[in-house]
Amino acid sequence: MELKKLKGLLGIQEGDTSQDIALQFLMEDVDETIRNYCNLKAVPAGLASTSYRMAMDLYRYERPGDGDAPVQVSSISEGDTSTSFTSAADALSGGILKDYQGQLNRYRKLGW
Question: The dihedral of CA 20, 26, 28, 30: what is its sign?
Fold first, then answer.
């Protein structure tokens, strides 16, 4: 993965280096996750787009480098006004692999 391309996909200006460390970590994490899940030494070219989507999801839901975890509204009631919040990371419950197992399984090799 390329940092420049990931920044472009996330809408981060090329000259903005404030997120570079977090983005580099995400790219390494996604690479490691794919290699470990598929039992491969390198991420195949066929999973390039999938790896970018995984990195984008991790960036949006986990917000590395940000001390405050983002929250989402989980429910709203109008009678006597009630609002419930949940962590945005809950969208990744079951891990980042949950949404991408279909694509990754095509490249998965049996490990002994």
Answer: negative
112 found inside a domain: no
| 48/58 Cα distance (integer angstroms) | 16
Q: Which amino acid is at 49?
A: S
Measured N-to-C along each axis, helices 20-38 and 3-10 cross at an angle, to the nearest 10 degrees, of 110
The terminus-to-terminus CA distance of the chain in angstroms comes to 28
Write down the residue that tokens 């290699």 correspond to. 35
Q: What share of the chain is helix, strand, coil (3-state, %, to 5)?
A: 55, 10, 35
Taking only the tens place, the pLDDT of each residue in 49-68 is 999 999 999 888 877 766 55
Domain housing 96: 3-105
Structure confidence by residue, pLDDT tens digits, 21-40: 999 999 999 999 999 999 99
Number of structural domains, the chain? 1
